[in-house]
Design a protein that fits this description.
By secondary structure, the chain is of the alpha/beta class. It is built from 8 helices and 15 strands. The strands form 3 sheets. A 7-stranded mixed β-sheet has the order 10-9-8-7-11-12-15, with helices on both faces. Strands 4-3-6-1-2-5 form a 6-stranded antiparallel β-sheet. It has a two-stranded antiparallel sheet with strand order 13-14. The longest helix is centred in the last third of the chain and has 13 residues. The structure holds flavin-adenine dinucleotide and FE2/S2 (inorganic) cluster.
Length: 280
């Protein structure tokens, strides 16, 4: 059954809460109306508004793959009013969901190409659906090799550890490089910031798209590293997190220059970003 008022949330139940890091939980939710669940479709990179009744709503990217038909996932970092209320929920709690909103990563243009994924901290959340979409058995033949370079402040700050250390590295034609900012006794892997690791790994640009998300400083230096390695601006994509209210292009809250992040984004190529005022 469709929802006619775009501002009216669908009611959903939190069926599981996965603790990713000290301040990030992944909320797995299922619509109470199973017809709404079956009718839901999002594309990798899209966002939705998640509400805690009586508290408010906030924007989150869908961190589950569109190919997962059983539930939706949102990975939420505790930041303020709504996110703290979400973190206080227990499985069985009701939440509201509206969306999906915005554009997506250009997964059609990426067919037949390789993908380089670069994430920092919770920045892996919007990139994860694209990886899992491409790895789904029905889509895998359409895409080339997948390389993932991901970093966090510490081991405990890395999200999606099961996928990062088991599912993805074990998948054919997938390579994962993980790094943490500062050495830890039990950590055998790489130590250092993501942009420096990108320079070390030296990915090649041929037939490859890049998707990046993480703290602005990480994105800034990673883009410089990629440009030095010969990647073209129109093959580098990122996703913006300007504050949103309506999510449907009506309130004017999320604009960057003449573009609305909720309607024209949140995914932009570096070519597009280079044409926007530097307000993001
Ligand atoms: C397109 C988009 C995608 C997002 N995806 C995710 C996601 O997947 N996971 C996630 O945890 N968060 C995500 N966010 C950020 C999330 O929406 C904010 O953390 C949330 O709105 C905070 O709500 P709150 O009521 O808990 O905090 P508030 O009480 O409103 O604010 C707490 C503090 O956080 C700051 N803040 C709030 N929103 C933002 C923002 N968008 N950018 C920077 N600072 C902010 C406030 O200025 C304040 O300092 C996304 C935001 C956008 C716009
Ligand atoms: S959030 Fe209202 S116009 Fe974008």
């Amino acid at each position: 059954m469709g929802v006619s008022n775009p501002l009216l949330p669908r009611v959903a139940t939190v069926v599981d809460i996965i603790r990713e890091t000290g301040d990030v939980n992944t909320f797995r939710v299922v619509f109470d109306d199973l017809e709404e669940m079956a009718a839901w479709n999002h594309r990798p990179g899209q966002v939705a508004m998640l509400s805690v009744f009586g508290v408010g709503e906030a924007t989150f990217c869908l961190s589950s793959s569109p190919t997962c038909r059983d539930w939706l996932e949102f990975s939420v970092r505790r930041a303020g009013k709504v996110t703290t209320a979400l973190h206080e929920l227990e499985p069985g709690a009701k939440v509201g969901v509206r969306g999906p909103y915005g554009n997506s990563f250009p997964y059609e243009a990426m067919r037949g190409k390789h993908l380089l994924v670069i994430g920092g901290g919770i920045g892996l959340a919007p990139l994860r659906p694209l990886v899992n979409f491409m790895l789904a058995p029905e889509n895998r033949k359409d895409y080339g090799k997948i390389e993932i370079i991901y970093g966090g402040r510490s081991y405990n700050d890395l999200c999606y550890k099961e996928e990062l250390f088991r599912t993805w590295p074990e998948a054919p034609d997938v390579t994962v490089w993980t790094t943490i900012d500062v050495a830890e006794e039990a950590w055998q892997g790489h130590v250092g910031f993501v942009p420096a690791y990108v320079e070390e790994v030296k990915p090649t640009p041929e037939d490859k798209f890049v998707v990046i998300c993480g703290p602005p400083i990480m994105i800034k230096f990673t883009v410089k590293a990629l440009e030095n390695l010969g990647f073209a601006a129109d093959h580098i994509y990122t996703t913006l997190e300007m504050r949103m209210k309506c999510g449907i292009g009506k309130c004017g809250r999320c604009n960057v220059g003449a573009r609305f992040v909720c309607r024209d984004g949140p995914v932009f190529s570096l070519t597009e970003l280079n044409q926007l005022p530097q307000e993001y």
